Amino acid sequence: MAISQRAKESVMALIMTTGNRMVFHSIHALNWTKT
């Protein structure tokens, strides 16, 4: 159980970092198209 919990946490962290990066890039692209 503990191993699966840690695996789940690491996967969630990976998704969070990837998601934040995607959001950052999309906001950056939106700012580029605005100007």
Which labels suit this protein?
about 35 residues, mainly alpha, rod-shaped
Fold topology:
Blueprint: H1 2-34
Order of helices and strands: H
Helix content: over 70%
Biggest sheet details: none
Give the termini separation. Answer: 51 Å
Radius of gyration: 15 Å
Shape: rod-shaped
**Beta-strand proportion:** under 5%
Total number of strands: 0
Average pLDDT for all residues: 86
Low-confidence stretches: none
Derived from helix and strand composition plus strand pairing, the structural class reads mainly alpha
State the helix count.
Answer: 1
Brief synopsis:
This protein has 35 residues and is mostly helical. The chain has one helix and no strands.
Describe this structure in words.
With 35 residues, this protein is mostly helical. It has 1 helix and no strands. Helix content is 94%, strand content 0%. It is rod-shaped. The termini are far apart.
